[in-house]
Design a protein that fits this description.
CATH architecture of the largest domain: Orthogonal Bundle
Helix content: 40-55%
Number of strands: 14
Shape: rod-shaped
Number of helices: 6
CATH topology of the largest domain: Helix Hairpins
Number of domains: 4
Structural class: alpha+beta
Strand order of the largest sheet: 1-10-13-12-11-14
Distance between the termini: 89 Å
CATH class of the largest domain: Mainly Alpha
Largest sheet: 6 strands, antiparallel, barrel
Length: about 475
Amino acid sequence: MPFAEHPLEETNPLTARFHSFGRVQTPNTGRTVARWLGGLGLIVLLAGFLPWTQNIRSYGQLTTLRPQDRPQTVPSTIAGRIERWRVREGQRVKKGDTLVDIAEIKDKYFDPELLQRTREQLEAKIAALEENRGKTAALSSQQVALRSGLSVSLDKARNKVTQTRLKVNSDEAELRAANNDFDIARQQLQRQEELYKQGLKSLTELEQRRLKFQESTAKRQAVENKLGASRQELINAQLELSSLQAEYQDKLAKSESDRRSAVAYQFDSEGQIAKMRNELANLSIRSGFYRITAPQDGYVVRALKTGLGDIVKEGEPIVSVMPDAPALAAELYVKPMDIPLLRVGRKVRLQFDGWPALVFSGWPGTSFGTFGGRVAVIDNIDSQGQYRIIVTPDPELEPWPKPLRVGSGVYGWALLDDVPIWYELWRQLNGFPPNFVGSPADAGKGGKDAKKADKAASSGGEEEAT
């Protein structure tokens, strides 16, 4: 370039004399680059004051909030042999649909009429119990009759004793009269003999007096015999009265023994009937276990036992079922140092595996392909050095994609406070944790939003529990 054309010639005419001076001048390209670098530096400096949303990043997988919505295995309640499959893998089933038919393998239950026969045994035992109750009632009536008969017999025996005692008294009075007659007849006989000796009475009259004396003697002897018989009869009546009580007590004791035996048999029968009813109920319930049914609406995921004739044990899983339309939730794992920053209701952004997304973790509003959620559960104990949190869809934001499946991977970050970018870089370089003052909801407007989120999450949790 000629010296006259150099820009410095216009300011200082002496520079045109020096050829080397023109060689050391700054070219226009350098000035342009310097201006660009200065502008970029200014932009970076200003960008350092832009807001940056602090966040906690974690990985996890999709699960369900309710335990009944998670994949479950359907076991066999009883041991048996697979007789027939009624479903195939991937088939949709409703609650109560039969999945598998199994047959009995225990010889105790081989009889096809076992339920009916057990019911007949129960009915026969109940009939025997009713008859035994009738026997117990009859024995009780017999005891009442025995007690009534004892009372009547005792009264009769007492009347007989009284009657015999009166008879003895009458015979004693008759004996006294006979003794008086005997004494009179003896005195008369003595006087008659004296008069006969004196010649005042004839022999005929003496013999007549002697005859009357003999009659009086015989009469007195008869009365004495009669009195002895009456007294013996009185003793017998008294003995009969005494033995009557013992006789009836023996009959009552035997009747009471029979009654107690009948009552004992009745209680034993009632126990056997209760046992048979229990067995009948168990058999009735067991007969319903020969068909394994779906516990709820869903899809057959996998058959855990294959073929026909395969033996299954009690409680052994046979088929796996995925419930229909589960309430999805994200299961994330957070480091222990980040747990104090989280609480129920905290907002979370999620990125699902297989779903295209463009993520700016510090500017969640500019991200594409991410979905919102809220923290619903925070475990109180760690799991292999990390704490589990469960995130549910945010009802105020866009719904999660319908093609999502339980078990797919999830990448999430919990949104915290807004800070300048320079502060976030300084915090990251020094390894400091995110801001935490009091509780995670104590930062101005963010705290108010968090409280509202808490209230919404609590109401949502109550509705879910209901």
